[in-house]
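Aim 2 progress. For YgjP-like metallopeptidase domain-containing protein, the working sequence is reproduced below.
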Amino acid sequence: MQIEINKSRNRQRTVSAKVVGETIQISAPQNIPDEKLKEIIENLRSRIEKRTKKRDLTSDTNLQAIVQNLNEKYFEGEIEVQSIEYSTNQDKIFGCCTYREKRIRISHRLATMPTWVRDYVIIHEMAHIIEPNHSKSFWGLVNRYPLTERARGYLIAKGATEEEF
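Predicted structure tokens for this construct:
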């Protein structure tokens, strides 16, 4: 994305950004030092790119339909998931579940992995809605998915630790 900077005498303290087409338009105070502005712009660019990536991933993949399919196939439709979305700030874990609200977030890194690995992570998080721990009962639910061990092995080969999934 291109950057367009508009420095204004009217603006006293804040720097703002908005995306117009393929351009990030920056509004900044006229007296802000260039080094500080450069740092702020990098931060804003990073946040905008993450937000754009998340939006694109979510629109490209109908995660709710995937959840519904997996729910019918492996949980007999008994799990209610309120929402599922990609997250661009999950660099250490592959998924998380807020079981009380029945919300699932999965890492954007899964979008570049085989779909059966993504499906395993989704099933893992769906199982937390029923069992919010890693008990024997929880693993019984997860192991309904026939590719569980293969997916776990794949994630370990990619450098994941047991705590990450």
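The chain has two domains: 2-59, 61-164. This observation will guide construct design in the next reporting period.
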